[in-house]
Specification:
There is one protein chain. The chain is built from one helix and eleven strands; from the N terminus they run E-E-E-E-E-E-E-E-E-E-E-H. By secondary structure, the protein is mostly beta strands. Strands 3, 4, 5, 6 and 9 form a five-stranded antiparallel beta sheet that branches. The protein has a four-stranded antiparallel beta sheet with strand order 2-10-7-8, with no helix packed on it.
Length: 214
């Protein structure tokens, strides 16, 4: 007798892991940008803001060499937050459709341990004042009317995975065809056994011997 003949096949089971992310962004405007060159080595912090389910702030480091650095810092009580961060310099007049080369949209993946553990991520950007520059036409970022620059910080944070028990039927994996050659999953597993009635042995014993005691 084969081993297969003595086995019982149980119905297949299934489960689902749903992965989602929360996104958000913050806009920071720096007015009087040319004056910031006098504050080489200093740092400025934006106000706290909420995005992607957490609280953050942007740290700005100006430089006398026509560059500026932006860093994102986690604040609040959150811990071990893995995020994708993207800083983008917006053109003057905030025309997002004219944003420049792909390097301006580089994403940074970083794990923020906690607010007490000071760590951050960001990028540096060089500016030039001459409109004749071809390789680095970054003068378009500076609004001459109010001497300002505008940066957008996009943040994406992974949510906690949602895990739940499921069934092959709900997942749309069951084929109901009658083709014997079909290799897909079919609902041909044995029906679950119906529960057997519970017998009260003590009551049955009493009834059995009651006829002899009458």
């Amino acid at each position: 007798m084969s081993i297969k003949a003595n086995t019982i096949t149980s119905p297949p089971s299934a489960s689902t892991i749903a992965l989602t992310a929360t996104t958000g962004y913050h806009l920071l405007k720096i007015k009087g940008y040319t004056h910031s060159r006098l504050l080489n080595g200093e740092r400025f912090m934006s106000s706290k803001f909420s995005a992607a389910g957490h609280t953050w702030r942007i740290i700005v480091y100006p430089s006398e060499c026509d560059s500026v650095s932006f860093f994102l810092q986690l604040v609040g009580r959150s811990k071990d937050v893995t995020a994708e961060v993207q800083f983008s310099m917006l053109h003057r007049r905030c025309n997002a459709d004219e944003m420049l080369n792909p390097d301006n949209h580089q994403e940074i993946r970083h794990k923020f341990r906690s607010a007490s553990c000071i760590n951050s991520c960001g990028f540096s950007r060089w500016f030039v004042d001459s409109e004749e520059t071809v390789d680095l036409p970054l003068y378009k970022y500076i609004d001459k009317d109010d001497d300002s620059i505008l940066v957008r910080c996009d943040i994406k944070v992974m949510n906690k995975p949602a895990i739940r028990a499921d069934s092959p039927e709900k997942l749309g994996l069951i084929c109901h065809c009658k083709d014997d050659t079909c290799k897909r999953l079919h609902d041909t597993w044995p029906e679950p056994m119906s529960p057997q009635p519970v017998v009260n042995n003590k009551l049955a014993f009493t009834r059995l011997f009651s006829c002899f005691l009458a």
